[in-house]
Amino acid sequence: MMEHFRYKIYGLVLRSNQPLPAPQADDDAPVDVEIDIAKAPVPNLEWSGSEPIYRGTESLWHLDDETWRLGYTDHRSGARWDITCEWGAQITVRWMEGISVPDIGTVLVNSALAVALHLRGIPCLHASGVLVSERAALLLGPSGAGKSTTAAALMAAGNALLTDDIAALDLEPQRVLVYPGHPRLRLLADSADAVNGRFDVLHPVWVDPGMSRKRYLDPATAAAAARAASRLAVIYVLTPRRVGPHQPAITALEPREALGHLLACTYASGWLDARRRARLFRCLARVTELVPVRRVDRVDGLGDLPRLARLLSADADLIAAPCLPR
Questions:
Q1: Cα(240)–Cα(297) distance, rounded to whole angstroms?
Q2: Could you read off the pLDDT of 224-281 as tens digits, one per residue?
Q3: Is 78 exposed, middle or buried (CB count within 10 Å of its CB: 0-12, 13-18, 19+)?
Q4: Residues near 318 by Cβ (< 8 Å), separated by ≥ 6?
Q5: What integer is the mean pLDDT of 291-318?
Q6: pLDDT range class, residue 215, cuts 50, 70, 90
Q7: In angstroms, how far apart are the furthest CA atoms of the chain?
Q8: Alpha-carbon span 227 to 207, nearest angstrom
Q9: pTM here?
Q10: Which site among 165, 219, 300, 323 is 20 to 30 Å from 64 CA-CA?
Protein backbone atom coordinates (compact mmCIF):
# COMPACT_ATOMS: atom_id res chain seq x y z
CA MET A 1 0.00 0.00 0.00
CA MET A 2 1.36 3.41 -1.00
CA GLU A 3 2.22 5.71 1.90
CA HIS A 4 0.73 9.20 1.87
CA PHE A 5 1.48 12.30 3.92
CA ARG A 6 -1.14 14.88 4.95
CA TYR A 7 -0.57 18.58 5.51
CA LYS A 8 -2.55 21.79 5.99
CA ILE A 9 -1.32 25.14 4.70
CA TYR A 10 -3.03 28.27 3.28
CA GLY A 11 -6.35 26.77 4.34
CA LEU A 12 -5.84 23.73 2.07
CA VAL A 13 -5.48 20.11 3.16
CA LEU A 14 -2.85 18.36 1.06
CA ARG A 15 -2.23 14.67 0.50
CA SER A 16 1.20 13.91 -0.97
CA ASN A 17 3.01 10.73 -1.93
CA GLN A 18 6.25 12.35 -0.68
CA PRO A 19 7.01 14.31 2.53
CA LEU A 20 6.78 18.11 2.36
CA PRO A 21 8.05 20.92 4.62
CA ALA A 22 4.55 21.89 5.78
CA PRO A 23 2.42 21.58 8.96
CA GLN A 24 0.68 18.22 9.34
CA ALA A 25 -3.10 17.90 8.97
CA ASP A 26 -5.56 15.78 10.91
CA ASP A 27 -6.12 12.37 9.34
CA ASP A 28 -9.88 12.87 9.04
CA ALA A 29 -9.74 16.27 7.31
CA PRO A 30 -11.16 16.27 3.75
CA VAL A 31 -8.42 16.54 1.12
CA ASP A 32 -8.37 19.66 -1.08
CA VAL A 33 -5.23 18.99 -3.13
CA GLU A 34 -3.67 15.70 -4.22
CA ILE A 35 0.08 15.87 -4.93
CA ASP A 36 1.91 13.23 -6.96
CA ILE A 37 5.69 13.57 -7.21
CA ALA A 38 7.35 11.22 -9.70
CA LYS A 39 9.56 8.70 -7.91
CA ALA A 40 11.95 8.35 -10.85
CA PRO A 41 13.32 10.82 -13.41
CA VAL A 42 11.88 11.08 -16.89
CA PRO A 43 14.33 10.92 -19.82
CA ASN A 44 13.39 14.32 -21.21
CA LEU A 45 10.94 17.17 -20.72
CA GLU A 46 9.81 19.09 -23.79
CA TRP A 47 7.73 22.25 -23.33
CA SER A 48 6.57 22.67 -26.88
CA GLY A 49 3.51 24.58 -27.97
CA SER A 50 2.42 28.06 -27.00
CA GLU A 51 4.66 30.64 -25.37
CA PRO A 52 4.47 30.85 -21.57
CA ILE A 53 2.13 33.42 -20.02
CA TYR A 54 5.00 34.40 -17.75
CA ARG A 55 8.72 33.82 -18.26
CA GLY A 56 11.33 34.18 -15.53
CA THR A 57 13.14 32.00 -13.00
CA GLU A 58 9.98 29.96 -13.24
CA SER A 59 7.89 30.00 -16.42
CA LEU A 60 4.15 29.44 -16.43
CA TRP A 61 1.89 28.10 -19.16
CA HIS A 62 -1.90 28.10 -19.28
CA LEU A 63 -2.48 24.65 -20.81
CA ASP A 64 -6.18 25.51 -20.55
CA ASP A 65 -8.32 27.74 -18.35
CA GLU A 66 -8.08 25.42 -15.34
CA THR A 67 -4.72 23.70 -15.95
CA TRP A 68 -1.47 25.60 -15.42
CA ARG A 69 2.12 24.39 -15.58
CA LEU A 70 5.23 25.81 -13.94
CA GLY A 71 8.55 24.91 -15.57
CA TYR A 72 12.07 25.19 -14.19
CA THR A 73 15.50 24.77 -15.77
CA ASP A 74 18.79 24.27 -13.93
CA HIS A 75 21.03 26.51 -16.03
CA ARG A 76 24.14 24.78 -14.71
CA SER A 77 23.18 21.32 -15.99
CA GLY A 78 20.28 22.01 -18.36
CA ALA A 79 18.08 19.60 -16.39
CA ARG A 80 14.38 20.45 -16.18
CA TRP A 81 11.43 19.79 -13.94
CA ASP A 82 7.83 20.93 -13.93
CA ILE A 83 4.66 21.17 -11.86
CA THR A 84 1.20 20.82 -13.42
CA CYS A 85 -1.85 21.92 -11.44
CA GLU A 86 -5.39 21.04 -12.54
CA TRP A 87 -8.43 22.85 -11.12
CA GLY A 88 -6.41 23.79 -8.05
CA ALA A 89 -6.99 20.23 -6.84
CA GLN A 90 -4.38 17.97 -8.48
CA ILE A 91 -0.63 18.68 -8.65
CA THR A 92 1.74 16.46 -10.64
CA VAL A 93 5.53 16.81 -10.58
CA ARG A 94 7.97 15.48 -13.18
CA TRP A 95 11.76 15.82 -13.02
CA MET A 96 14.89 14.91 -14.94
CA GLU A 97 18.16 13.46 -13.71
CA GLY A 98 20.32 16.19 -12.21
CA ILE A 99 17.53 17.99 -10.34
CA SER A 100 17.79 18.43 -6.55
CA VAL A 101 14.69 16.39 -5.72
CA PRO A 102 14.65 17.29 -1.98
CA ASP A 103 14.24 20.96 -2.96
CA ILE A 104 11.06 20.24 -4.94
CA GLY A 105 9.05 20.21 -1.72
CA THR A 106 10.18 23.74 -0.87
CA VAL A 107 8.84 25.02 -4.20
CA LEU A 108 5.65 23.00 -3.85
CA VAL A 109 4.60 24.74 -0.63
CA ASN A 110 5.24 28.14 -2.19
CA SER A 111 4.89 28.63 -5.95
CA ALA A 112 2.95 25.44 -6.72
CA LEU A 113 0.35 26.09 -4.05
CA ALA A 114 0.14 29.72 -5.19
CA VAL A 115 -0.99 28.30 -8.56
CA ALA A 116 -3.62 26.19 -6.78
CA LEU A 117 -4.80 29.21 -4.79
CA HIS A 118 -5.10 31.37 -7.90
CA LEU A 119 -7.03 28.63 -9.72
CA ARG A 120 -9.38 28.46 -6.73
CA GLY A 121 -9.93 32.23 -6.81
CA ILE A 122 -8.19 32.86 -3.48
CA PRO A 123 -6.35 36.23 -3.45
CA CYS A 124 -2.69 35.99 -2.45
CA LEU A 125 -0.44 38.83 -1.34
CA HIS A 126 3.35 38.78 -1.38
CA ALA A 127 3.61 39.32 2.36
CA SER A 128 4.78 38.06 5.72
CA GLY A 129 2.35 37.91 8.62
CA VAL A 130 2.49 37.79 12.40
CA LEU A 131 -0.13 37.64 15.15
CA VAL A 132 -0.55 40.69 17.38
CA SER A 133 -3.24 40.52 20.08
CA GLU A 134 -4.52 37.35 18.38
CA ARG A 135 -5.10 39.19 15.09
CA ALA A 136 -3.09 39.15 11.86
CA ALA A 137 -0.77 41.96 10.81
CA LEU A 138 0.67 41.68 7.29
CA LEU A 139 3.96 43.15 6.11
CA LEU A 140 3.68 43.95 2.42
CA GLY A 141 6.34 44.68 -0.15
CA PRO A 142 8.27 43.39 -3.17
CA SER A 143 11.15 40.93 -2.95
CA GLY A 144 13.98 42.42 -0.90
CA ALA A 145 11.77 44.91 0.95
CA GLY A 146 12.56 43.33 4.31
CA LYS A 147 9.26 41.59 5.01
CA SER A 148 10.82 38.48 6.55
CA THR A 149 13.42 40.49 8.45
CA THR A 150 10.74 42.73 9.97
CA ALA A 151 8.60 39.68 10.78
CA ALA A 152 11.59 38.12 12.54
CA ALA A 153 12.02 41.26 14.63
CA LEU A 154 8.34 41.15 15.57
CA MET A 155 8.72 37.49 16.53
CA ALA A 156 11.72 38.35 18.68
CA ALA A 157 9.44 40.85 20.41
CA GLY A 158 7.02 38.04 21.31
CA ASN A 159 4.62 37.85 18.36
CA ALA A 160 3.89 34.53 16.63
CA LEU A 161 4.55 33.86 12.97
CA LEU A 162 1.45 33.36 10.82
CA THR A 163 2.90 33.12 7.31
CA ASP A 164 5.92 34.04 5.22
CA ASP A 165 6.10 35.02 1.55
CA ILE A 166 2.46 34.20 0.70
CA ALA A 167 -0.60 35.53 2.53
CA ALA A 168 -3.76 33.75 1.35
CA LEU A 169 -6.91 35.73 2.14
CA ASP A 170 -10.52 34.73 2.78
CA LEU A 171 -13.01 37.57 2.34
CA GLU A 172 -16.12 37.37 4.49
CA PRO A 173 -18.93 39.98 4.35
CA GLN A 174 -17.51 42.16 7.12
CA ARG A 175 -14.00 40.90 7.75
CA VAL A 176 -10.89 39.43 6.09
CA LEU A 177 -9.15 36.28 7.31
CA VAL A 178 -5.55 35.21 6.71
CA TYR A 179 -4.77 31.51 6.48
CA PRO A 180 -1.70 30.12 8.23
CA GLY A 181 1.07 29.72 5.70
CA HIS A 182 4.64 28.53 5.55
CA PRO A 183 6.00 28.18 9.10
CA ARG A 184 9.58 28.79 7.99
CA LEU A 185 10.90 32.35 7.96
CA ARG A 186 13.70 32.77 5.40
CA LEU A 187 16.56 35.08 6.35
CA LEU A 188 19.98 36.11 5.08
CA ALA A 189 22.93 36.13 7.47
CA ASP A 190 22.89 39.85 8.34
CA SER A 191 19.15 39.80 9.07
CA ALA A 192 19.31 36.64 11.19
CA ASP A 193 22.30 37.91 13.16
CA ALA A 194 20.54 41.23 13.77
CA VAL A 195 17.54 39.38 15.22
CA ASN A 196 19.03 36.49 17.18
CA GLY A 197 22.77 36.58 16.52
CA ARG A 198 22.97 32.90 15.52
CA PHE A 199 22.65 32.50 11.76
CA ASP A 200 25.08 29.58 11.93
CA VAL A 201 22.62 27.37 13.87
CA LEU A 202 19.76 27.84 11.38
CA HIS A 203 19.01 25.29 8.66
CA PRO A 204 19.60 26.09 4.97
CA VAL A 205 16.40 26.67 3.01
CA TRP A 206 17.74 24.68 0.06
CA VAL A 207 19.63 21.40 -0.04
CA ASP A 208 21.34 22.56 -3.24
CA PRO A 209 23.75 25.30 -2.05
CA GLY A 210 23.58 26.95 -5.47
CA MET A 211 19.93 27.93 -4.95
CA SER A 212 20.25 30.53 -2.18
CA ARG A 213 22.29 31.42 0.90
CA LYS A 214 19.17 31.95 3.01
CA ARG A 215 18.46 29.93 6.15
CA TYR A 216 15.21 29.62 8.05
CA LEU A 217 13.68 30.04 11.47
CA ASP A 218 11.02 27.45 12.20
CA PRO A 219 8.69 26.65 15.14
CA ALA A 220 11.51 24.76 16.83
CA THR A 221 13.51 27.98 17.16
CA ALA A 222 10.73 30.58 17.21
CA ALA A 223 7.07 30.97 18.04
CA ALA A 224 4.94 28.29 16.37
CA ALA A 225 2.67 29.27 13.51
CA ALA A 226 -1.05 29.46 14.17
CA ARG A 227 -3.23 26.55 13.09
CA ALA A 228 -6.44 28.44 12.27
CA ALA A 229 -7.25 31.40 10.04
CA SER A 230 -6.94 34.74 11.84
CA ARG A 231 -8.80 37.99 11.38
CA LEU A 232 -6.73 40.56 9.50
CA ALA A 233 -6.35 43.70 11.61
CA VAL A 234 -3.86 45.79 9.60
CA ILE A 235 -1.60 45.78 6.53
CA TYR A 236 1.77 47.54 6.62
CA VAL A 237 3.40 48.61 3.35
CA LEU A 238 7.18 48.67 3.76
CA THR A 239 8.78 51.54 1.81
CA PRO A 240 12.48 51.71 0.85
CA ARG A 241 14.69 52.47 3.83
CA ARG A 242 15.83 56.08 4.19
CA VAL A 243 19.44 57.09 4.83
CA GLY A 244 20.06 59.86 7.33
CA PRO A 245 18.83 61.04 10.73
CA HIS A 246 15.22 59.94 10.35
CA GLN A 247 12.72 58.35 12.70
CA PRO A 248 10.53 55.37 11.71
CA ALA A 249 6.99 56.50 11.03
CA ILE A 250 3.59 55.00 10.24
CA THR A 251 1.09 56.80 7.99
CA ALA A 252 -2.47 55.76 7.18
CA LEU A 253 -3.23 55.34 3.46
CA GLU A 254 -6.46 56.20 1.70
CA PRO A 255 -8.17 53.20 0.05
CA ARG A 256 -7.24 54.26 -3.51
CA GLU A 257 -3.53 54.51 -2.70
CA ALA A 258 -3.69 51.36 -0.57
CA LEU A 259 -5.27 49.42 -3.45
CA GLY A 260 -2.35 50.33 -5.71
CA HIS A 261 0.10 48.82 -3.21
CA LEU A 262 -1.95 45.66 -2.79
CA LEU A 263 -2.21 45.15 -6.56
CA ALA A 264 1.53 45.74 -6.97
CA CYS A 265 2.26 43.17 -4.25
CA THR A 266 -0.07 40.39 -5.36
CA TYR A 267 1.83 37.12 -5.33
CA ALA A 268 2.71 36.23 -8.96
CA SER A 269 0.17 38.60 -10.48
CA GLY A 270 1.82 38.05 -13.87
CA TRP A 271 0.32 34.57 -13.96
CA LEU A 272 -3.26 35.81 -14.09
CA ASP A 273 -5.52 36.16 -17.12
CA ALA A 274 -7.87 39.14 -17.61
CA ARG A 275 -10.83 37.47 -15.90
CA ARG A 276 -8.83 36.58 -12.81
CA ARG A 277 -7.20 40.03 -12.72
CA ALA A 278 -10.64 41.65 -12.67
CA ARG A 279 -11.77 39.39 -9.84
CA LEU A 280 -8.57 40.12 -7.91
CA PHE A 281 -9.13 43.87 -8.32
CA ARG A 282 -12.61 43.60 -6.81
CA CYS A 283 -11.36 41.44 -3.92
CA LEU A 284 -8.48 43.73 -3.00
CA ALA A 285 -10.66 46.83 -3.30
CA ARG A 286 -12.93 45.24 -0.72
CA VAL A 287 -9.92 44.49 1.50
CA THR A 288 -9.03 48.20 1.57
CA GLU A 289 -12.60 48.97 2.70
CA LEU A 290 -12.44 46.48 5.58
CA VAL A 291 -8.81 46.70 6.73
CA PRO A 292 -6.61 49.73 7.50
CA VAL A 293 -3.51 49.93 5.31
CA ARG A 294 -0.52 51.91 6.57
CA ARG A 295 2.76 53.01 5.03
CA VAL A 296 5.89 52.32 7.10
CA ASP A 297 8.87 54.63 6.64
CA ARG A 298 12.02 53.02 7.98
CA VAL A 299 15.52 54.04 8.89
CA ASP A 300 18.34 52.47 6.89
CA GLY A 301 20.29 49.84 8.80
CA LEU A 302 19.38 46.70 10.72
CA GLY A 303 20.30 48.25 14.07
CA ASP A 304 16.94 50.04 14.15
CA LEU A 305 14.94 46.78 13.96
CA PRO A 306 14.08 46.57 17.70
CA ARG A 307 12.68 50.11 17.70
CA LEU A 308 10.72 49.41 14.51
CA ALA A 309 9.32 46.21 16.02
CA ARG A 310 8.15 48.07 19.13
CA LEU A 311 6.51 50.77 17.01
CA LEU A 312 4.68 48.24 14.80
CA SER A 313 3.64 46.08 17.77
CA ALA A 314 2.16 49.07 19.61
CA ASP A 315 0.33 50.30 16.51
CA ALA A 316 -1.01 46.86 15.58
CA ASP A 317 -2.06 46.22 19.16
CA LEU A 318 -4.14 49.40 19.21
CA ILE A 319 -5.87 48.41 15.96
CA ALA A 320 -6.33 44.73 16.82
CA ALA A 321 -7.52 45.12 20.40
CA PRO A 322 -11.05 46.38 19.54
CA CYS A 323 -11.51 43.30 17.33
CA LEU A 324 -11.12 40.93 20.25
CA PRO A 325 -14.25 39.30 21.71
CA ARG A 326 -15.50 41.17 24.76
A1: 7
A2: 444 689 999 999 999 887 655 567 889 999 999 999 999 999 999 999 999 999 999 9
A3: exposed
A4: none
A5: 86
A6: confident
A7: 65
A8: 27
A9: 0.91
A10: 165
